[in-house]
């Protein structure tokens, strides 16, 4: 029983992969490089996480994503937003934030499914989190259900997409990961800096809140 | 009104793009290089087709697809099947053929939609053909409908996937293309050789039958 785990190097996908491992799957890890600002740090975290899980690792070059442009994660002429009020104050999230890479999860999922089919995996595990995900439309349970239907039709398989954290928040994810023995020093979340977390981007803020709520010290901060 | 047309260099996507043009869309052309055997010839056809349509052109490197492996289109250790009986004799198509690149259309579509969203396109046009398509599961109308639902959910847009040839056969496609003034000398179909069509792979056979049924001479053969 094999599962392909898409592992970004962030905490959510590391915990999702640890859940797959606990459920008894043999793990194959897949990571994407796409010229994001924090590419080298994230890739190192990926290799560390795969090593922790005894997983075979695949790294694919998805740098065409930077060619699409339109996101502050890959376009260095755009600024990563800091200390956004909308993040925690219940403001309407009508527009995706500037860190949104158009349909990034759809692209990553499609590629992951192709590799899963080739490698004979029954499932693809993802670290998607709906509530905590900066309002990206391709992080929703609705998207995931529809994508599953498309993938099963388009591959002629019953490959399942499993996002065990989709309805969790960052505090719960820290707790689950801690119970499963995830080494959070092998994860990285900042959108902006490769060297040390900026502490002010959406992703740093969400991570800090998660560790705060869980009452656990973040080994990376 | 803008449409992103995924243009492989084959005849189907060239005709689909010509249909989009006739419907009044401004055309953006997108082509994928993925280390397929006939990559350089297909890319040249793509540029010629874009030039014929007055289209802005985008070429993305999708060579990670060769890294997935499992298809005779990209894996030079596998043989491209020749003169397959199943192609025309109504044999059951229970297994995808060895030229199948796992979920290739799903991957290409996901990337195309991301670019379409960035460029403000209302539609993505595709050359998918269900009946004539070597039995690939990601060439079906069912897949397309489900992928449309996934894409609209995952992008928060109403981008439409339009496959105007999905229910046509190659003979009809040659006729429609001829009526629209498509220059078929700017298209290429062979799976195996970059230099001249082998005449025996599935794709060459389907093309030859199409021109034969339409009673039109193929300028490439």
From TrEMBL, chains A, B:
<keyword id="KW-0436">Ligase</keyword>
<keyword id="KW-0479">Metal-binding</keyword>
<comment type="function">
    <text>Catalyzes the ATP-dependent conversion of 7-carboxy-7-deazaguanine (CDG) to 7-cyano-7-deazaguanine (preQ(0)).</text>
</comment>
<feature type="binding site">
    <location>
        <begin position="7"/>
        <end position="17"/>
    </location>
    <ligand>
        <name>ATP</name>
    </ligand>
</feature>
<keyword id="KW-0547">Nucleotide-binding</keyword>
<dbReference type="GO" id="GO:0016874">
    <property type="term" value="F:ligase activity"/>
</dbReference>
<feature type="binding site">
    <location>
        <position position="198"/>
    </location>
    <ligand>
        <name>Zn(2+)</name>
    </ligand>
</feature>
<feature type="binding site">
    <location>
        <position position="201"/>
    </location>
    <ligand>
        <name>Zn(2+)</name>
    </ligand>
</feature>
<dbReference type="InterPro" id="IPR014729">
    <property type="entry name" value="Rossmann-like_a/b/a_fold"/>
</dbReference>
<keyword id="KW-0671">Queuosine biosynthesis</keyword>
<keyword id="KW-0862">Zinc</keyword>
<feature type="binding site">
    <location>
        <position position="204"/>
    </location>
    <ligand>
        <name>Zn(2+)</name>
    </ligand>
</feature>
<dbReference type="Pfam" id="PF06508">
    <property type="entry name" value="QueC"/>
</dbReference>
<dbReference type="InterPro" id="IPR018317">
    <property type="entry name" value="QueC"/>
</dbReference>
<keyword id="KW-0067">ATP-binding</keyword>
<feature type="binding site">
    <location>
        <position position="190"/>
    </location>
    <ligand>
        <name>Zn(2+)</name>
    </ligand>
</feature>
<protein>
    <recommendedName>
        <fullName>7-cyano-7-deazaguanine synthase</fullName>
        <ecNumber>6.3.4.20</ecNumber>
    </recommendedName>
</protein>
<comment type="pathway">
    <text>Purine metabolism; 7-cyano-7-deazaguanine biosynthesis.</text>
</comment>
<comment type="similarity">
    <text>Belongs to the QueC family.</text>
</comment>
């Amino acid at each position: 029983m094999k599962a392909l785990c898409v592992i970004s190097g962030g905490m959510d996908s590391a915990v999702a992969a640890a859940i797959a491992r606990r459920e008894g799957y043999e793990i194959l890890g897949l990571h994407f490089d796409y010229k994001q600002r924090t590419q080298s740090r994230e890739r190192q975290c990926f290799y560390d996480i795969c090593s922790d899980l005894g997983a075979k690792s695949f790294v694919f070059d998805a740098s065409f994503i930077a060619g699409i442009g339109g996101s502050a994660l890959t376009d260095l002429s755009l600024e990563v937003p800091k200390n956004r009020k909308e993040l925690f104050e219940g403001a309407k999230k009508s527009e995706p934030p500037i860190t949104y890479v158009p349909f990034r999860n759809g692209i990553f999922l499609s590629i992951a499914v192709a590799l899963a089919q080739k490698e004979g995996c029954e499932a693809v595990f993802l670290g998607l989190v709906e509530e905590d995900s900066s309002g990206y439309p391709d992080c929703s349970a609705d998207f995931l259900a529809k994508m599953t239907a498309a993938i099963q039709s388009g591959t002629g398989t019953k490959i399942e997409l499993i996002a065990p954290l989709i309805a969790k928040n960052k505090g719960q994810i820290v707790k689950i990961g801690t119970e499963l023995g995830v080494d959070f020093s092998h994860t990285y979340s900042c959108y902006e800096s490769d060297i040390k977390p900026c502490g002010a981007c959406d992703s740093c803020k969400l991570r800090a809140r998660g560790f705060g709520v869980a009452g656990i010290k973040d080994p990376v901060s």
